[in-house]
Amino acid sequence: MNRSIAPDGSEYFLPNSQETVAEDKKIEEITIAERQKGRKIVTVQGLGFVGCVMAAVVANAETETGEPIYFVHGHQRDSKRSYWKIPVINSGKSPVNSSDPKIPVLFEKCVKEKKTFRATWSEKVYEEADIVVVDIQLDAIKPAFGEAEKGYCDLYAFREGMKTLGRHIKPECLILVETTVPPGTCEQVVKPIIEEEYKKRGINIQSNPPLIAHSYERVMPGENYVASIRDFWRVYSGVNQKSKELAREFLSQVINVKKYPLTELENTNSSEMAKVMENSYRATNIALTLEWARFAEKIGVDIFKVREAIRKRKGTHDNLLRPSLGVGGYCLTKDPVLANWALKEIFQINDSLNVAINSVNINDTMPLHTIDLIKEKYENLKDVKVAVLGVSYLQNLGDTRHSPSKILIKNLKEYWAEVKVHDPYVKSWPEMEDIDIEEKIEDAVAEAEVVVFAVGHDEYKQLEPKELIEKCSCTPLIIDCSNFISDAKIIEYLNLGCQVKGVGKGHIDNLTK
């Protein structure tokens, strides 16, 4: 049956051909009406974690007199996996679960009140667009666990998306690529595809060269989700001067450029490199702290207190990141791989980004260290009951993409441990369909011999030791993966008869001495 299931279990049926014809007509009518109001038309390609909120931010952009500047068509393919986002958005709700209170307000406002944002499955929206913002998925494939140097870029879906644009958009339409891409993509992938499709349509690419720009987002999908898009610095460039000008005009109307000025780079190779280098820096920073966390455990040191002492040196060391279960999300796990692949495959340079790639390997395998901490007590994990609290990759967020909890749980199950999981922000886990997420903490931790605080959701940080032990009906081994439990609570756990271990927390044995 052609149905799409939302994370909350709601069913939505995929449209048939007659419904698509009616949808095309509706899109045309809406576009005509919006142009009569003096508004430009923006189509956002891809309504994932970045695209859907970016679309709402654009739809909320106003002139100084409070008039909407754009009408936004959000486009999502009518696949079984993702079609559900369209009716959810058109009901005025966000398809992403976040702790940012601005998210639901923004969707309700733009969809229901201002009526400047609408989602669809029809490619008709590309024909109507003045600007297309590209937020479709582009993955790095790592075929061997812990060997990121073997990784490569899967451009298939991205290329198909660009072909779709080339078949539909007007020559004067700006393509603004926000998707994180390997350096060289706009010039050597997007531009040739659009040119080829233009030629098929009889468009003269000399008089109508493709207008392509790149401006990467720095989305932090947590409590500052909206602000990380609208109130943050942006870097951009274009394949030609006209593309740069159009990108600057658009971004200046959407982003708070008075407080966060735009940075224009010489070409799209530069802006593409800026994104993957920025995230490679963060990945390497984290990998460094993970190595030192293991060192701290062996010599009785609390790495988090050491880190805070270092961070007091403002301006040079205050950006030292923290160790944790591991690194997840869509960027830090893949961007160094994209850059390393581009170096070899796009630019044909016989070299490697060794530091960046090694950081990915350290980060990818870090969840295994948590298993090592558990095995200090349970050498044989067969039938050991383990509760994992948190499966998203970031606190107070429902995004499970590349979550280190996935690696942790898969390996625990390979040791034949009995694993139960809980996450207040995640109802279903597409990457781990064989895992049921318990609705209540007490169901996940009941009779648990090990409780892993994997993600720092507020709900877990507020959990009192006595309360947890009552839910467990025993005194479990407590594993703190990133300083989620204070020393005072650790002492309370110890006094209640629990053992406590933590990533980088070598000082625990000295707390009650």
Explain what the structure shows:
By secondary structure, this protein is α/β, with parallel strands linked by helices. Helix content is 41%, strand content 14%. The chain has helices at 17-36, 51-59, 85-90, 102-113, 124-128, 156-168, 185-200, 225-230, 241-254, 268-298, 303-311, 335-346, 354-365, 367-375, 404-414, 441-445, 458-461, 465-472, 487-495; strands at residues 3-5, 11-13, 40-45, 70-75, 117-120, 131-134, 139-141, 152-154, 174-177, 211-216, 235-238, 263-264, 385-389, 418-422, 437-438, 450-453, 477-480, 500-502. It has an eight-stranded mixed beta sheet with strand order 5-4-3-6-9-10-11-12, with helices on both faces. It has a six-stranded parallel beta sheet with strand order 15-14-13-16-17-18, sandwiched between helices. A two-stranded antiparallel ribbon has the order 1-2. Helix 6 packs across helix 7 (185-200), helix 10 (268-298) crosses helix 13 and helix 14 packs across helix 15 (404-414).
* Mean pLDDT, all residues: 94
Described by the principal axes of the CA atoms, the overall outline is globular
CATH homologous superfamily heading of the largest domain: NAD(P)-binding Rossmann-like Domain
Helix content: 40-55%
Biggest sheet features: 8 strands, mixed
**Alpha-carbon Rg, integer:** 24 Å
Cα-to-Cα separation, first versus last residue: 64 Å
Looking at CATH, which topology of the largest domain would you report? Answer: Rossmann fold
CATH class of the largest domain: Alpha Beta
Tell me the domain tally. 2
Could you give the order of strands across the largest sheet?
Answer: 5-4-3-6-9-10-11-12
The total count of strands amounts to 18
> Which structural class do you get from the secondary structure elements?
alpha/beta
* Low-confidence spans: none
- Helix count from the secondary structure assignment: 19
- CATH architecture group name of the largest domain: 3-Layer(aba) Sandwich
